[in-house]
TrEMBL record:
The lineage of its organism: Bacteria, Pseudomonadati, Myxococcota, Polyangia, Polyangiales. Keywords: ATP-binding, Coiled coil, Kinase, Membrane, Nucleotide-binding, Phosphoprotein, Transferase, Transmembrane, Transmembrane helix, Two-component regulatory system. InterPro entries: HAMP_dom, HATPase_C_sf, HATPase_dom, His_kinase_dom, HisK_dim/P_dom, HisK_dim/P_sf, Sig_transdc_His_kin-like_C. Residues 223-257 form a coiled coil. Residues 273-488 form the Histidine kinase domain. This is histidine kinase. Its EC number is 2.7.13.3. It comes from Polyangium spumosum. One of its GO terms (cellular component) is membrane. Residues 190-242 form the HAMP domain. It comes from the Bacteria. PANTHER family: PEROXIDE STRESS-ACTIVATED HISTIDINE KINASE MAK3, SENSOR HISTIDINE KINASE.
Amino acid sequence: MNLARKRLTRKLLAIFATPVVLGFVLTGVVSLRTIRTSLVESSERALADNIATLRTAALPIAAKGQTEEAAALVERVADEETVHGVAFYDERGAPFARSSALVNAPSALDVMAARAVSLGASSHGTVRVGDEEVLVHVEPVRDAPGLGAVVMTRELGPIDRMIDLALIRLALTGGAAALCVSLIAIWISRVLGREWGNLVHAVDRVAAGDLDVRVEASPRLELDRVARAINDMTRSLAETREKLLAAEAERTELAARMRHAQALAVVGQVAGSFAHEIGSPLNTILGWSRLSAADEDLPGPVRAQFETIAAQCERIRRIVQRMLDVSRPPTDHVVPVELADVVRDVTAFLAPDLRVRRIDLRLRVAERLPPIVAVRDRLLQVVMNLCINAIQAQPGGGTLRISLALDDADPEREPRLRLEVADAGPGIPEDKRSQVFELFYSTKVEIGGTGLGLPIVADVVRDLGGRVEIADAPEGGALFRVLLPAASSAR
Ligand SMILES: Nc1ncnc2c1ncn2[C@@H]1O[C@H](COP(=O)(O)OP(=O)(O)OP(=O)(O)O)[C@@H](O)[C@H]1O
Ligand SMILES: [Mg+2]
């Protein structure tokens, strides 16, 4: 028996059995007292009646002073079933005939008789004679020579024995009734206990934070309604928790995007003033270096050094230009853009590079794809950055595999375009896949990598309501998958 059922049994027992037991005790005590009182009263009335008859018989005997006849009369009357004892008292209040039961009667009896004689009023009460308590009735006799009072007693024992018997019967009936209601309480707790225990257990689990709890209960005593109420409550709590978690996640995501956008803005400002400050001196150094490198009057090694200076200046200019490019806010308008055209433009632009680096281009573009509503240059930045990264990841040659198709994996969703750019380079380890999207994270510092390409890609794609994933390419390298909502659902 589980704890909840035990508790239920205890409560039901208290609720059912206590009033029954109390009811029996109270009504028993009250009714037995009343019964005893009325029995005693009727005994007293019987005594009074008996005395009236006895007095009539005693008058002539007393008048003649016939003590022996008086003794015989009291013994005869005392032999009757309902009479305990009989006694005659004379005009002075002294006993002159007593039945054997009253021979050793206490003085209290004589006192009662003497008082009745002197006051001329009847009285009744109880006195103890031997081990027995008896009911006494004293009747004064006026103006009768030789007779002052007649006393008659009656045993109280039979009445008390009747009351004791009634008490035992009452106790037995009360016990049986208490047993019956206890059995009913135990039966109810058995029938309901399991379901009640389930409900209590479910509420305990909800209180501990488990909102997946679902309870079932039968319609007995409306328990199914309680179960439904608990289920509705946990469901609505779970929904509220879901909403709170979703709102929190959205808030965190928004904060991250804002930090990202602010960082890009700072990059743009720094790059702008940087380009402005070093632009002129850099151009001067570059110009003079080129001129000197082309000066045939200078010795070969010196010209080579100028060549190096010019090349490094070019690199610095490229880096600054790139920082400007990526951070400059787009000026174009948002229009429906054919992503397939963007992909073709980028591959056409990179074709000479691919040839030099012996990278095999495998392009697969699906027919009749829906457009994407976006700023064209921003989409160009996405494709370009992914392709350049793929090229840079394969310095010794390899494969650039680009595929563009409709993503119809989930028919429930709005149509999306899936662009995949894969290479046969070293790939990106799992634990680095979120890091590569961080601003300024780059493993290509020596070749002028700024760590801005992928953050820009992520930013543009997110702005269009899409997402970027990294996976393993079939050739072993990295595979970047970009999912973008198509025109009908684009933001
Ligand atoms: N196709 C790829 N294969 C392997 N690693 C890659 C690939 N693409 C990106 N990475 C890793 O992610 C890093 C960040 O790329 P990201 O394009 O942001 O910057 P970058 O290429 O280093 O510099 P930038 O693009 O600004 O010139 C790279 O330095 C490289 O370590
Ligand atoms: Mg890059």
